[in-house]
Structures are given as structure tokens and as C-alpha cells.
Amino acid sequence: MKRRNILKGAALLPLLSINGLARENNNSQPKSLQEQTFNEDFKKVKIRKVKAIVTAPNGIELILVKVETDQPGLYGVGCATFRQRAWAVKSAIDDYLDDFCRGKDVNNIEDIWQTAYVSSYWRNGPVLNNALSGLDQALWDIKGKIANMPVYQLLGGKCRFAVDTYTHASGKTPEEALDSVQKYMDEGFRHIRIQLGGYGATHLTEKPDYKQHGFGMPDDNTMNEFAYMDGVVKMFDLVRKKAGEEIELLHDIHERLQPMDAINLIKKLEQYRPFFIEDPFSPENIGWFELLRQQTSVPLAMGELYNNPHEWLVPMSKRLFDYIRIHISQIGGITPAMKVARLGEWFNVRTAWHGPGDVSPVGHAANAHIDLAVWNFGIQEAPRINDRLREVFPGSPTVEDGFMFVNENPGLGVDINEEAAARYPLPEYNYNWTQVRKNDGTAIRP
Ligand code: MG
């Protein structure tokens, strides 16, 4: 049976037998349903150790949590990836959560989440939330293994056969972006994000005035906001005309415009029928959404930088955007993400979880298990998981014809090969990506 493969080795035989997958001996009476599905031995499985694993198979820092239990061979893996502060997350896991969790009952995910959440007293920051996410996802993985079910079944079962995704097309010019769109259309994607460069902060000026006056650092990026806004409209015009009406087009402003400039840009894009426009404002500028909503009916996606419930609770309840873009490990894992999804259901705010390269395959699987199970799923940012990642993370999700699939193994279905992971140490962190300035040197907030 394929589903048994997740639990390997002779040491697991007792565990398998008490899980209803085998009988203790041929003479024993058939067990009651209750005994078969949730045996006495699983009523209390204790956490033996919580440890961080760091790896960078693609040169991108990934942080995982492995929760080991007192049952031989029974463990869980969760994503705690916050690449910009990887070592700080590792310390939060190894130096604090491990000690906090030892001896606790793995069955009580909600209680462990609630108590770990307040264990630092101060909370809701990205470092501690990611550590908490790694723990939380690993506990869901373990619960799935005990129940002998994939996590999406524990969350309510499937609302759809697979997870529809969007991918990223980009180019330095509108023509290059169009070529990129056509390539992904040929691969079967029906939703494509279009950018002039990766992050909408293209039109980088090589010789800005601030550098000529010795301000900032030599590697800092510079954004010409007017060139950016002009280029995005031209790109939408070309791609919509040439790629046709059937393809869904998305764009990420990446928070880098002044609020009124973002509003004006979105109004200009309305005629091209975007699927959504993402992150028009930085989290500090949430107050501008009401004005934006009065000006345009373009669907909006927001929230990949959100960490604190106060950032999404009121905007979602006021229907100020259509898609919630939260990065699941940044809010603390599956447990809080399910609450966000359920909140959205009542206001018809749909999910569009953040799914870039700095989410581990375990994290992508967590996204997908939720995507399968919640009614108000919107769209999922597609993972790109190459062979190197698949070697480190056996069981990673797959993408075919624009749909993401998870396997049917119990739990999240993704393991970690620690030997392979150790071959890819973390690179030195590159601060450059976040450092973007205006021509006069003013720092721009993503
Ligand atoms: Mg984004």
C-alpha cells in the first residue's frame, strides 16, 4: 500500500498494527472502529525534540522544522522559511521552541500553537511567527500520519480536484514580456502574472543622482516611478491585444508607488481586465484602500507582508480587497491560515497564498492542502520545484497544465532528506534585493 511508505522500518511495526493497518496476531478479535482509527497508544504521543534544518538547494535560504516524537519513526516536517533572517529563525526554534515543546502531547495542535504564541510575551513578528509555523505545520504532518490521511482530509476534504495556479512572466520590454506569456500559455497556464522585470521595480536607473553624490551604497537599486508606470500600461496593452481575452493577467505593484500614483495606475489598467492587481500599498498605507475601492472595480490582492492579525482583520471585514495574499509561515502556519480563510469566506475574500521561491516545498504543500479544502480558494502562486529541490524534499507537489497536485501520503506528504539538505549550506545573505531608492536617494518601502 502506497500510503504505508511514509512509515518505514521494522521499528514501526507496532505503530502500524495499532493504527488499524495490521492485526497484532491472526487470532485476535476484529477491533472496533474506534480502536482501529484512534488507538490508545496515540492518545498521548509526546514531542521528543524540535529542531531547525537549514538548506539552500537553489541558493535561496530555506528553514524547516522537524518535530520528533517518542514513537519511533513518527515525526513531522514544517516550513519556517524567512530567508531574510534565517539564522534568527533557527535560533528561535533551537534555543526556545525545542525546550518549550519537549514532553507536550502532539495531538493538541491548537493548544500548543496558543501557548507557544504567547510564550515570548511579545509576539506577531516575522521571526517568531516563522518558528511557530515550522512547529505548527510539522504537528499537522504528524496528525495526518497518525490519522493515516493527507492533511487536506483533516481540513474537511476536497472542494476541487486540484489547485489552479498562476505563474510569473516577465521581460525588460513589453515585447519580451509577451514572449514570456506565450511560453507559459503553451505550458498550459491560464493565469499569468506580467512584470517588467521580476518585482515591478524595474526601470532601474544605472546612474542616479544620489550615487553621483556619494549617497547610499554602490549596489543599491534605483526606481524611476514614472518609467515604471508608463511601462506597465504599455505592457498590458500589448499583452492583452496579442495574447487574447482568454488568458488571465495579474500584476504586482509590490507596494513601491505613492498611494495616489498606485490609484491612478490601477484606473488606467482597468480597460485591460486584470485578474487582480497585487499589493498597491505598503502595509503602513492600509488606510488608502477605502479611497482606492471608490475609484475602481479592478480586483485587488493584498497581504504578503502581513504578520499581525490587526493588518487583515478590519480590511477583510470591510471587503477592501478581493484576495488575501498572506505568506502562511509569516503568520504562524496552517492553524492561523485556516482561520484567515474561514474569515474570508463570510466576506467573499478569496485566498491567494504567497508562493515564491522562498517557500520550501513543505510550505508549498501546506498552501496546497489548504487550497484544496477551503471553499473560498481564489488562486495559488505556482511553485517552481526543480530536481535539486525534489532530491532534498521527496514527495514535493507537482504542477501540470497550470494545476498543482499533492500526493496522497499521510500528512503533508513531503519528507526531508537531511543528508542531501546538508550539502547545500546557506549563502551569505544579500541585502541588495530590498534596497531600492528614488533618484534623490530616498529609500522606497516595498
Ligand atoms: Mg507580491
Structural write-up:
The protein has 446 residues and is an alpha/beta fold. The chain has two domains: 16-149, Enolase-like, domain 1 (2-Layer Sandwich); 154-411, Enolase-like C-terminal domain (TIM Barrel, Alpha-Beta Barrel). It has helices spanning 13-18, 33-37, 86-101, 109-117, 126-147, 151-154, 174-186, 209-212, 225-243, 259-269, 289-295, 309-317, 328-331, 334-347, 361-373, 387-392, 418-422; strands at 47-55, 62-69, 75-79, 163-170, 191-195, 221-222, 248-252, 276-278, 300-302, 323-324, 350-351, 380-381, 398-400, 403-405, 436-437. The strands form three sheets. Strands 4, 5, 7, 8, 9, 10, 11, 12, 13 and 14 form a ten-stranded mixed sheet that branches. Strand 1 and strand 2 (62-69) form a beta hairpin. The N and C termini lie far apart (48 Å). Residues 252, 254, 278-279, 304 line the site of magnesium ion.
Question: Notable features of this structure?
Answer:
TIM Barrel; 17 helices; 446 residues; Enolase-like, domain 1; 3-stranded antiparallel sheet; disordered N terminus; 15 strands; alpha/beta; 37% helix; 10-stranded mixed sheet; binds magnesium ion; globular
Can you tell me the CATH superfamily of the largest domain? Answer: Enolase-like C-terminal domain
Which shape, going by the Cα principal axes? globular
Q: Could you list the spans in which at least 5 consecutive residues all have pLDDT below 50?
A: 1-27
Largest sheet: 10 strands, mixed
